[in-house]
Inverse folding.
């Protein structure tokens, strides 16, 4: 099942993202841009402007953009960039400034040569004559005075000199600049100096090394400073979207901001690390990263790494230890001194060096009960230190050797455990001496001085993972399992699975290890780490330990089949559906029957599954703990085969008290997915309430089904993109391809016909793959919308043929209803009536509101010509039934059908129009507007309607449809489509279909504002 390529497609597996740095406009810098433009354009404004910002914040980009805008305004811009080696050459920057200004002055005056001034400047630099260079630079900057001191200057317009990366400049030149009387200079020449310096949150500069030469420029009279701060979450998200040329999902955007704190250079480094390994997937123009995707380690040449390496020792050693020990707060210094074998003074110097260059931040504030805290530069107490960028901390930590990480982590664990033990000891005493102020502050623990409670627990678990076997194994396992169990099901990510894996390696008792492996497998399943689940469960099945119960082995068998299906390994699932495969395993018959039955269900071989379960009931129906799952399989099998009563009884039966919460959840989930498959939202709500569950507690696939049913289609699509991009496709229901089928239905309703087909084409599998009636129905709807009734009919008949082969009934009502409508539209009424008869029998047999509604709507369309009264009566009943069911899309299409046939007032169209708007069904909004105009009704929101029409038209063009196809989809003539295109081009200024496609794909808004 290979996925198609292309960022504009929503397909299984998506495509790998690439980082695009070609568009570096002033994102998130509007305020700073306006500020510096105002300063430079004000005749009374400062002659010296300092642009300050931390490493990677985008100073160079900002300064370059300022220069480009100034040039566009007619200002002459002279650019001077400093590099690291410049600091070793006295007066180099001053020399370059003099030469640049004099060359420009000579060019402006045309007849004057810059040679004399340049020669004098070179001589001053060679002699390191700061006084002479000071005079030359003053003269060069004093544009209002005579260039050669003997005649007036022929001004050629304002000049701005941009000095970038002044932190690399030589101190002598900076000293010369500080001595210039800038307020007395004429406004013709302005100097903009940018420097990378650590800036704390209040905007004050960090400590700038031994002399602070650049920062002292800020104190020059008449100067002004513009500070570039970090980007906020929204601007960071926009930057990620620009770099990836795709919209990041919420999880990716949040993670990027957490790791980079909004520093653009760090954002670039992080995205580059992911994209080089193909970790970021793009589907339908949206970017995703898996929950278990490792955070990249910055390469040695990265700016954040070289800044640390340039400090040398002891800063590097202190940073290495601090990368693991920093959450311990103040006590970390003493521990670092012991580990590095450096003195306390050396460690203090190392920390100060890291703070001065902006790698590490001080955490101010006292800690209760702790005295003699280290002091910050202003004399305030410091409770700890943290890396300014979490991405840097991660990189420094990962650059440690495994043994270094192990020993440092063991140190942290021992400190935290010692504190916990002390707390327990204190709690056992009631003496007043243990309640005084000295001990009160210790109750929070060392890590709590820096981290909140949840992060402190995570920190401890991570350190236990890293320490390996260096400390108490039994206590380590208990801590890891406790930390993992605190994670809410469905939110397992990088940390949780590591904790389980480490715990299983530390456990020495076979029985305890098997139990831990099972918990690990369950967590991995919830996190969609299917390969891990498959490896664990197969190991347990082939070598079951004596401590594994029959129930545990049944669960392992079920998980093994489920994840094999989730990996779309249909040949293996086919083998799992045979008794022969299970006969080879040394497990109880209950586990074998359960696993084989599930494999048969996954292959939609429901008749065989029912027969197997019926034949082996004495094996599996031996108690509620183990019998619930096979009984559910049997009930679903009966439902699919057209006997819904057992399934309804299962819905009505409350869970027995002895069932553990996990089993109650799993059984409820299986029933919920089946109800969602059958469009029964009320029964699904009742089920959740009776089981004490909420929609938020459901796994992503089930939440997608819920959002689709309830009309929250934007949320449904967001979820679908993520699931499809990460190959999380299989729905554990009678139709396992509900995700692509209902995603395609949403896309079709929004006019994205080609995208809808691509979703389904990416699901094509081998012959062993089970049939999907929802996929056949969705595919036929697309062909029907495109006017290809023959292909739609062939698709439906293939689906019905497969259903007949397997004796399937449930779900085929959608195929029969569509086939009745398609044959009726083709003018073959007799065939349509035959289809209607089949549909009627299914409706009577299943007895559900959904099948009844499909029969009413299909019969109205088939009988309209021959029996319009019956058709109208059916439509009126359909309207009442649809409203009682409360599904927005279903209700809207029913109202539309009734209004078109005159089975209700034309005002039904207004109601349908609003419901289509709630779901974002732009294609159907278009059809409803057409029907409203034909009925003489006013279309609300004329401006919005025009925007929606244009956006829909642009979408159809972007989908690659010809004018003829567009006319078919919109139910217009080709001339009408051509006229609409002409008006679209005229209004937007676009000249080709390619420009329209680009506007839609990039969301530029030029092709209409509606979604």
């Amino acid at each position: 099942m290979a996925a198609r390529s292309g960022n504009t497609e929503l397909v299984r597996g998506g495509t790998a993202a690439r980082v695009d740095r070609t568009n570096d406009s002033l994102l998130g810098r509007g305020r700073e841009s306006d500020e510096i433009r105002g300063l430079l354009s004000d005749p009374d404004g400062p002659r010296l402007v300092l642009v300050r910002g931390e490493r990677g914040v985008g100073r160079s980009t900002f300064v370059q953009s300022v220069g480009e805008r100034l040039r566009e305004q007619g200002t002459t811009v002279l650019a001077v960039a400093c590099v690291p080696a410049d600091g070793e050459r006295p007066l180099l920057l001053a020399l370059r400034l003099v030469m640049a200004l004099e060359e420009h002055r000579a060019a402006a005056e045309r007849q004057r040569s810059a040679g004399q001034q340049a020669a004098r400047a070179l001589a001053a630099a060679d002699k390191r004559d700061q006084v002479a260079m000071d005079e030359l630079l003053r003269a060069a900057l004093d544009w209002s005075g005579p260039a050669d001191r003997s005649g007036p200057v022929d001004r050629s317009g304002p000049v701005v000199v941009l000095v970038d990366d002044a932190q690399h400049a030589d101190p002598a030149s900076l000293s010369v600049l500080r001595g210039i009387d800038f307020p007395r200079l004429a406004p013709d020449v302005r100097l903009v100096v940018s420097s990378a310096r650590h800036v704390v949150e209040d905007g004050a500069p960090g400590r700038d090394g031994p002399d602070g030469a650049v920062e002292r420029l800020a104190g020059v009279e008449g100067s002004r400073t513009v500070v570039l701060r970090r980007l906020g979450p929204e601007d960071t998200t926009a930057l990620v979207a620009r770099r990836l040329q795709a919209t990041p999902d919420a999880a990716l955007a949040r993670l990027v901001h957490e790791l980079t704190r909004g520093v653009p250079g760090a954002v670039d480094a992080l995205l580059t690390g992911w994209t080089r390994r193909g970790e970021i997937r793009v589907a339908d123009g949206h970017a995703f990263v898996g929950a278990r995707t490792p955070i990249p380690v910055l390469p040695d040449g990265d700016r954040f790494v070289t800044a640390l390496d340039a400090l040398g020792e002891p800063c590097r050693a202190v940073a290495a230890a601090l990368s693991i020990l920093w959450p311990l707060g103040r006590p970390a210094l003493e521990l670092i001194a012991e580990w590095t074998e450096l003195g306390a003074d050396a460690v203090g110097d190392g920390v100060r060096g890291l703070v001065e260059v902006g790698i590490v931040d001080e955490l101010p504030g006292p800690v209760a009960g702790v005295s003699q805290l280290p002091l910050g530069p202003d004399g305030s107490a410091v409770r700890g230190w943290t890396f300014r960028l979490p991405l840097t901390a991660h990189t420094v930590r990962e650059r440690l050797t495994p043994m270094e990480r192990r020993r440092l982590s063991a140190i942290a664990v021992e400190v935290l455990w010692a504190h916990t033990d002390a707390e327990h000891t204190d709690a056992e005493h009631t003496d007043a001496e243990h309640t005084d102020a000295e001990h009160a502050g210790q109750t929070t623990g060392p890590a709590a001085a820096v981290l909140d409670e949840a992060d402190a627990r995570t920190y401890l678990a991570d350190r236990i993972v890293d320490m390996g076997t260096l400390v108490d194994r039994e206590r380590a396992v208990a801590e890891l399992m406790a930390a993992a169990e605190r994670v809410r099901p469905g939110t397992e990510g990088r940390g949780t699975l590591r904790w389980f894996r480490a715990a299983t390696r530390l456990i020495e008792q076979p029985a305890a290890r098997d139990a831990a492996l099972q918990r690990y497998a369950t967590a991995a399943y919830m996190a969609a780490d299917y390969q891990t689940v498959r490896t664990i469960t197969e190991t347990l099945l082939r070598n079951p330990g004596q401590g594994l119960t029959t129930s545990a082995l049944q669960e392992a068998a079920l998980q093994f089949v489920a994840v094999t299906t989730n990996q779309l390994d249909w040949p293996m699932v086919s083998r799992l559906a045979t008794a022969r495969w299970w006969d080879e395993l040394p497990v109880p018959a209950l586990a074998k029957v359960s696993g084989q039955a599930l494999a048969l269900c996954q292959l939609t071989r429901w008749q065989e599954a029912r027969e197997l379960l019926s034949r082996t009931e004495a094996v599996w129906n031996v108690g509620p703990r183990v019998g619930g799952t096979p009984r559910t399989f049997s009930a679903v099998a009966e439902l699919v085969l057209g006997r819904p009563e057992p399934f309804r009884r299962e819905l009505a039966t409350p869970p027995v008290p002895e069932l553990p919460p996990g089993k109650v959840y799993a059984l409820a989930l299986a029933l919920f997915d089946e109800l969602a498959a059958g469009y029964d939202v009320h029964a699904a709500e009742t089920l959740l309430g009776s089981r004490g569950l909420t929609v938020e507690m459901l796994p992503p696939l089930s939440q997608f089904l819920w959002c689709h049913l309830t009309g929250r289609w934007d949320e449904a699509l967001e979820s679908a993109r993520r699931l499809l991009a990460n190959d999380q496709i299989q729905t554990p229901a009678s139709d396992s391809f509900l995700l692509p089928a209902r995603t395609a239905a949403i896309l079709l309703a929004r006019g994205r016909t080609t995208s809808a087909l691509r979703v389904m084409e990416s699901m094509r599998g081998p012959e062993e793959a089970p049939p999907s009636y929802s996929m056949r129905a969705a595919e036929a709807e697309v062909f029907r919308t495109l006017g290809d009734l023959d292909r739609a009919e062939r698709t439906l008949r293939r689906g019905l043929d497969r259903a007949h082969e397997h004796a399937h009934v449930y779900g085929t009502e959608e195929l029969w209803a569509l086939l009745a409508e398609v044959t009726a539209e083709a003018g073959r009424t007799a065939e349509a009536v035959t289809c209607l008869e089949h549909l009627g029998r299914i409706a009577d047999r299943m007895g559900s509101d959904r099948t009844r509604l499909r029969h009413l709507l299909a019969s109205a369309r088939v009988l309209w010509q021959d029996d319009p009264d019956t058709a109208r009566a059916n439509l009126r009943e359909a309207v009442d039934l649809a409203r009682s069911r409360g599904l927005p899309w279903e209700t809207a299409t029913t109202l539309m059908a009734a209004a078109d046939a005159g089975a209700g007032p034309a005002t039904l169209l207004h109601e349908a129009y609003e419901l289509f708007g709630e779901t974002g069904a732009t294609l159907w909004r278009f059809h409803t507007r057409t029907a409203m105009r034909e009925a003489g009704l006013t279309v609300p929101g004329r401006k919005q309607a025009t925007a929606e029409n244009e956006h829909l038209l642009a979408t159809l063009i972007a989908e690659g449809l010809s004018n003829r196809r567009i006319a078919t989809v919109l139910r217009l003539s080709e001339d009408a489509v051509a006229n609409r295109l002409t008006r679209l081009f005229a209004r937007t200024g676009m000249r080709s279909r390619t420009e329209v496609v680009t506007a839609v794909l990039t969301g530029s808004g030029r092709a209409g504002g509606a979604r």
Notes: The domain at 479-690 is CATH 1.25.40 (Serine Threonine Protein Phosphatase 5, Tetratricopeptide repeat). The chain has a mean pLDDT of 86.
